[in-house]
Specification:
With about 500 residues, this protein is α/β, with parallel strands linked by helices. Helix content is about 45%, strand content about 15%. Strand 4 and strand 5 form a beta hairpin.
């Protein structure tokens, strides 16, 4: 009987202890809840009382995320300490897949935009649906990021990532030696016919004095669609509107005309005969050394080219060719649309609510401006409607700021961002010419950039693009002829193009 009484007493004491512990836990939860930012507080710059430590995985950069000045600024402004890890520079995708498969408890993961990867994670249940969290804790997120951007990332009606949108429209054009033009008494070409005439003059009259090594136009070996030129044939983007339908370049009626023109440049020796063997660096070296009169490059490459040519050919001058008009009067550059990076919250996160609160706090207007370009008078000045960087402190303390972003203030960031380009006057001049001084009608938006996730297109697009690129290079270089085009188009359609076209145009019809 005594044993039974003791057992009963032990049970009673255990129940009492559990009740006390539950009460303590409840009080702690209530205390934490009172300290955490409320939905109203989430709109403020700094939820000071919340010190939840978050764990974030980000893309590679060449400095430690945790010691770079932006990390401290964000901690002070948001109230959250973040422990940053980064993916490797090479084979980052393999590493990310391993991390996601192992359910490592990152609260935030930021990667380069890869819709196929993102949608795969979402469909496999590896990501948190952000919609209810944003509704409850994300007023700044909803204000900063457009509904169009949000809708483009929905997978089966749910949002699993915060997008960081692209910040400028035009990437590449033809960079041409303007001192060669002056030497030959020629004007900057404005049409495809004029471009061919200029390149022929470069070949025949050799203004660079290169003899047998003279190259009118050089490109890297895998560049099948020559920026600016392809726009002059009405195909600036991978898919373009043809009579109300989006059509891939290979199936576009203008594809044959484009091939005829570029293959003609190659056959006449106006496009470098050895271009197929060129790496990107090889083509640039030919231009920088003065052997080539024109090259197709990104505006961000201008400082490197300018520095090299200042040393090797101090009198050299160059400029981008404006949007060329083609045989039918068409002209234009592919204008970027869509996303540079995506930030998502893995299901393995220990703090999904706090992670979304941190994103929201980082997108408070003044906090985001400080993140993007720093403090006025210290990191930048505002002159004539433009943000001008103060060097070297802007480079030292904000050069890597975009790697810390999880979404952007889509209205203001494109203006803030131009302070980065203004760090180098030569680079800004090139950027400004292509992005700010070309006619608006010459910027032809990539319509698929903000299209929603489409399963067939996401699955097959990369393979199809590679297939077309390889075939186009062979046509230009004479290894294939247009007599085999129909057979190749049939192969292309069965490889997924037909299925993608149906999916894309079903969506495109809804946009009208």
């Amino acid at each position: 009987m005594r044993k039974g009484s003791k057992l009963i007493m032990v049970i009673i004491m255990a129940v009492l202890m559990m009740s006390v512990m539950e009460a303590c836990g409840s009080n702690k939860s209530e205390e934490s809840a009172s300290k955490a930012p409320t939905a109203t507080d989430a709109g403020s710059a700094a939820p000071e009382a919340s010190k939840t430590e978050l764990k974030r995985l980000d893309i590679w950069q060449n400095e430690d995320y945790n010691t770079y000045p932006v990390a401290k600024m964000l901690e002070e402004k948001t109230g959250y300490k973040v422990q940053y890890d980064m993916l490797p520079q090479d084979k980052w995708l393999e590493k990310l897949n391993l991390i996601m498969a192992s359910s490592e408890s990152y609260d935030l993961v930021t990667t380069y935009s890869n819709m196929a990867l993102y949608s795969d994670y979402a469909q496999k249940g590896a990501l948190v649906d952000l919609t209810p969290l944003i509704e409850k804790y994300g007023p700044n997120i909803k204000k900063a990021i457009s509904q169009q951007s949000m809708d483009a990332l929905k997978v089966e009606g749910k949002l699993y990532a915060i997008p960081t949108s692209v910040t400028y429209a035009i990437n590449n054009s033809i960079l041409i030696r303007t001192d060669w033009l002056e030497k030959l008494g020629l004007q900057m070409p404005t049409t495809t016919d004029e471009l061919a005439s200029v390149l022929k003059a470069f070949k025949d009259k050799d203004p660079g004095g290169n003899g047998d090594q003279n190259v009118p136009l050089t490109i890297k070996g895998d560049l099948a669609m020559l920026d600016n030129i392809v726009g002059a044939f009405g195909m600036p983007n991978s898919w373009n509107d043809v009579d109300g339908q989006l059509v891939p370049r290979l199936l576009d009626p203008a594809y044959k005309d484009y091939i005829g023109y570029v293959a003609g440049l190659y056959q006449q020796g106006l496009l470098e005969k050895e271009f197929v063997a060129n790496k990107d660096a090889t083509a640039k070296e030919k231009f920088m050394s003065g052997k080539a009169g024109a090259i197709i490059i990104h505006w961000a490459d201008i400082p490197t080219i300018s520095d090299a040519m200042t040393k090797s050919i101090p009198d050299a001058k160059f400029a981008f060719v404006p949007a060329l008009k083609g045989p039918q009067g068409e002209a234009g550059f592919s204008a970027n649309a869509g996303f540079d990076r995506l930030t998502f919250i893995p299901k393995a996160s220990n703090h999904p609510e706090e992670a979304i609160k941190w994103i929201n706090a980082s997108l408070e207007a003044e906090t985001f401006k400080d993140l993007a370009i720093g403090e006025e008078g210290k990191h930048y000045t505002f002159e004539n409607g433009a943000y001008m960087p103060i060097l070297p402190i802007f480079t030292d303390e904000r050069n890597l700021a975009n790697n810390y972003m999880a979404g952007t203030d889509e209205e203001n960031y494109p203006l803030y961002w131009q302070a980065r380009v203004r760090k180098n006057p030569v680079m800004f001049e090139a950027f400004d010419f292509l992005n700010n001084k070309q006619p608006k009608e010459a910027q032809i938006q990539n319509l698929l950039g903000l299209a929603p996730y489409m399963q067939q297109y996401a699955k097959d697009n990369q393979q199809l693009e590679t297939m077309v690129s390889d075939y186009t290079v062979m046509l230009i270089a004479g290894a294939e002829t247009l007599s085999g085009l129909e057979a190749f188009q049939a192969k292309y359609k069965t490889a997924g193009a037909d299925a993608s076209a149906k999916e894309i145009n079903d969506w495109y019809a809804t946009t009208k």
